[in-house]
Amino acid sequence: MARIVGAITTSHIPAIGKAIARNLHEDPYWKPFFDGYPPVHRWLAQVQPDVAVVFYNDHGLNFFLDRMPTFAIGAAPEYRNADEGWGIPTVPPLPGDQPLSWHLIERLVGEEFDLTTCQEMLVDHALTIPMALLWPGSGAWPVRTVPICINTVQHPLPSAMRCYKLGQAVGRAIEAYPEDLRVVVIGTGGLSHQLDGERAGFINKAFDVEFMQRLAGDPLWAARYSIAELVELTGTQGIELLMWLAARGALGGEAATVHSNYHIPISNTAAGLMLMERRAA
Q1: Strand partners, 255
Q2: Are 124 and 61 spatial neighbours (Cβ–Cβ below 8 Å)?
Q3: Could you tell me if 41 and 134 are in contact, meaning their C-beta atoms sit under 8 angstroms apart?
Q4: Contact 238, 194 (CB under 8 A)
Q5: Coil, strand, or helix at residue 74?
Q6: Which residues does 33 contact at the CB level (< 8 Å), separation at least 6?
Q7: Spatial separation of the C-alpha atoms in residues 278 and 11, rounded to whole Å
Q8: Rounded to 5 degrees, what are φ and ψ at 14?
Q9: Whole-angstrom Cα distance, residue 145 to residue 279?
Q10: Which domains are present in the chain?
Q11: H/E stretch holding 242
Q12: In whole angstroms, what is the distance from residue 71 CA to residue 60 CA?
């Protein structure tokens, strides 16, 4: 049977892609951020996942305001990205895992999640930057990818609890898959930030730190907040922590934080990284 080896949550700020392209890893501004990732690289080299199931949000590349599904899952043979206008180089196509995708789709629909199924799907920086951070310098991606997109743009948004339960359902579906696969679950986005309006530049370090401290052991603490409360606490775009909750839901059971890093600011955003594993029974 397939098994989940762990969960990783990470920011996906577009400026990170430019910093990678310009090799700014040792630049004083960027070094505290990039220094957080080598422990995760070593962990990935040790557990060697076959597939990454990635919860992310689309920023207008594949979906726009006229057609914005609440939840969408990729079932394509590969996933390409495109120039979004940030000056980020495009990456090689990410190979998909269609049999696993269709298994997840069948299981999730069976648990009454209404999904948009995408047999063609462009993926933006919310997916490609985390992949480049976790597997740097990859000529060919060492994992297959199943992208799961959560709407964080067009209201009404799914509740934090609904996203957590989506993750739980994904975790159950992965572990019901009959093939012997090692799966890493990834949640991308955030943390607190607001890009526009009267609170442009807003960062709530206290909430971010508490959220990260509680996510492994007490995810329901954050899942119980309403969307309006989370926007107030984290900023309009800070609502991207919904993907972190989904990833933690997929990990299931009792979990522990293996590694974390928090740094502000990157651009005008709070940047976070977590690696979580299940606690041994």
Answers
A1: 278
A2: yes
A3: yes
A4: yes
A5: strand
A6: 16, 261, 263, 266, 271
A7: 22
A8: -55, -35
A9: 25
A10: 3-278 (3.40.830.10)
A11: helix 241-251
A12: 15
C-alpha distances (whole Å) from 197 to each of 129, 200, 204 are 26, 5, 16
Residue 48, token pair as written in the block: 């060697």
**What does the pLDDT profile of the chain (281 residues) look like in tens digits?**
999 999 999 999 999 999 999 999 999 999 999 999 999 999 999 999 999 999 999 998 888 988 999 999 999 999 999 888 878 888 899 999 999 999 999 999 999 999 999 999 999 999 999 999 999 986 789 999 999 999 999 999 999 999 999 999 999 999 999 999 999 999 999 899 898 888 888 999 999 999 999 999 999 999 999 999 999 999 999 899 999 999 999 999 999 999 999 999 998 899 999 999 998 66
**DSSP annotation of 122:** B
Tokens of 225: 């907040």
Residue pair 142/135 in contact (Cβ under 8 Å)? The answer is: yes
Residues 166, 15, 199, CA angle at the centre, nearest 5°? 75
Phi-psi group of 43: left, alpha or beta (phi > 0 → left; psi -120 to 50 → alpha; rest → beta): alpha
Backbone angles phi, psi at 134, to 5 degrees: -85, -30
Residue 219's nearest CA partner among 187, 190, 191, 246 is: 246
Token readout for 6 is: 């762990």
Active-site residue, selected from the candidate residues 125, 155, 259, 263: 125
Do residues 239 and 200 lie in contact, with contact meaning Cβ atoms separated by under 8 Å? Answer: no
Residues found in the chain: 281
Verify whether residue 125 is a known catalytic residue.
yes
Q: Residue 32 belongs to what H/E stretch?
A: helix 31-34
Tokens 């989506």, residue? 166
Looking at 12, 59, 193, 263, which residue is catalytic?
193
99's tokens? 């049999």
Whole-number Cα distances in Å, 11 to 108, 115, 125: 26, 25, 10
